[in-house]
Amino acid sequence: MSEKTMITKNLNVTCIGAGVIGSGWAARLLVNGINVTVFDEQPESYHRTNSSVKRAKKYLSQLTKAPLRTIGNLTFAKSLEDALKIPNYIIESLPENLQLKQHLYKEIEDISIDTIILSSTSGFKPTNLQKHMKNPTNLIVTHPFNPVYLMPLVEVVPGQARDQNIIDDVQHLLEYIGMVPIIIKKEIDAFVADRMLEAMWREALWLIKDDICTTKELDDIITSSFGIRFAQMGMFESYRIAGGDKGMRHFLDQFGPALKWPWSRLTDVPEFNSELIEKICSQSDEQSDMHSISELEDIRDKNLVELQKALRNNRWGSGRTLASYEKDLFDEQSKQAEKASAQITSDLLITYTKTIPPEWADYNGHMTEYRYLNCFGDASDAVMLHIGCDKAYIEAGNSYFTVETNIKHLNELKVGQEVYIETKVIKGTEKKLHVFHMLKNKEGALFATGEHLLLHVSLKTRKTCPASKALTNRMAELYKQHKKIRLPSEPKIIV
Predict the structure, then answer these.
(1) pTM above 0.85, yes or no
(2) 3-183 CATH, one of 3.40.50.1970, 3.40.50.300, 3.90.78.10, 3.40.50.720
């Protein structure tokens, strides 16, 4: 078991404040198998948290081919005392009011002096938050980004009073749930990301006020230019490329002098009078009026999923984190399968999870036939990853090619249904991998089977060749584990 897994075993986290950020934290933790208690006196907190959990399950299952962890237990506390009975961590996501936060920390310490507090503040220095605490080392800023269940970055900001062991444990926790913890070396108001955003926001307000462009035009400029570049490479690596063969030095020589020109108004901000507010709001309404906030959230989340999947395939930017998180999920599933009892479902590999999206429906109102191959193909890829045929193995010159497929449709799958795939290795040799997939709904009902024969090939010769000893041994283990299990209608492929 990895260090990350060890520290999260039987973990309980209390989320105080269930707004957009607090409910996002709760969702991310729950989907990663961590028990969460939510405390928020606002009546809408129950609905908001459950809605975020639903979104997290839907979009994280689309983000990774790996099966998600068993969801943690969610409870709602009626009082602060109830919320603080068993937590290992407290995540505070109250409004940005320093006195309000400090008062909460005092109340927490009066009940539980040793519990670690993680503040979601987007601007306050941790030292200021710690000011009146009895045990200030127990508070660290962990500043996430919306939506927390999909955005990987967390700015981790310790205060002047700090405990390195606590910092390390928090870092491991965040990595375990698939996030990118960046430890900010020196505390500073608004940290790093929000200071960058603030600079852009100031300039954007002037451009709108001075009628240079509309809110839509400005958003189009961002999303159609540097926004795409920055999503994968950030600012400095993008500018390094802009310097041509001579790199960053040439870029600085060429564009550095321009920084002295009066192009921007970064140190000034327009007055937020009624005229400016009305201009921004009316343009924003016109820009997005055809979509509700919920629809916009769906559009945003779908795009975030696809962008991160593309980056994962290239092991670049946030895709590196996703690839590492996905490997952890597969490794955990493998360990669980190895320890399983002789029950049918516990001995098989869970190779795929998905909520059927609307775009997968055909003219008959159920999942179109080629999407079954889509699901089974991803499940076969998961088996390959499970036995060690990963990106590094493929880059070394070997892989698997599918040479025969047999799919049997047993029942209708409709939009919104949650499904998973159980996989049996029918045979695994040096050159052959024969798998049988079962597509089921969350109640365990069987909807389709997919049987696939894959051959191990050299990518140089494009001909069959023996797999590595490690892969062959892993296939042998799975075959031994699975051979006693009798499944419906297999095999159809004769090998």
Answers:
(1) no
(2) 3.40.50.720
